[in-house]
Every structure is written in structure tokens, then in C-alpha cells.
Here is the input.
Amino acid sequence: MLKYLILTLALCAVAHADDEWKPKTGDDIKQIRIECLKEHPLSGDQISQLKQLIFPDEPDVRQYLLCSAQKLDIFCTHEGYHADRLAKQFKMDLTEEEALQIAQGCIDKNEEGSPADVWAFRGHKCLMASKIGDKVKAFVKAKHDAAEAAKASA
Here is the structure.
């Protein structure tokens, strides 16, 4: 057990070395979503909700979001979310300082000892309710509208 704890701490420390961490590209994020859906399958209804940026507080959805956050290297089960990485990954057209302030307001040290999926979901829910979440929703809607317009003109 001690070896596992040491390994987990070492992995989190390595993952937290921000000199090497870079925000993921859109293609990286798509690949991560595919991998996490394979590891944590969701129902058709759950996938429909996620496409509409509705995140039900259900075990399968929480596990999928935890998987995504870990593969994005923005969440570690020992330390939680890394506010600096959240800010860099999801700042959209905000300044990094503003995004960092929002991210810092949404993370906690899990004082209540929640399971990792509940802890990650709590931070995700807060972020999606923030100005960052509003920017993400607007971005996704614009991408969807552009895709629909392209289909209509084809």
C-alpha cells in the first residue's frame, strides 16, 4: 500500500511539472473523449445530454468526466484539479489571469473525502456554471451551428 501511495504521489508530481505541460488540441480532446467512452461507456441518452452540455450527476457520467480530466492532465486523484492548467486549457477569449481566478474559485482540496469522480464532478460543475462555462457553451454552439449550415448548403 505504501508503494502505491508513493507511486501515486510521484505520478502526480510528474504530472504537475507545468514546464512541460501544454494545453491539448481539439484533436487531442476528441481522442481523449473516444478513449474515455470506451473505458466508461455511456447510454445514448447520456451522450445526447453531454452533446447539449448537460452533465447529469450519475456514476457513469462522473467516471467519464474523471477519465477525461485525468487524460487531459488537469486532474490528479491526489491533488485534484490544477487551476493553472484549467486556466490555460479553457480560457477561451478570457485573459489567463481571469480564467485562473475562476478556476481557483472552483477547485477544492476535497476536505470531505469524496471519491475522485465526485470530487472531479464538483469542480466541473462549478466551472461549467462560470464565465468559462458560458464561453465553452457559446463555442460549442457556434461549432454546431456552423456544421448545420454546412450541411444545409451541401
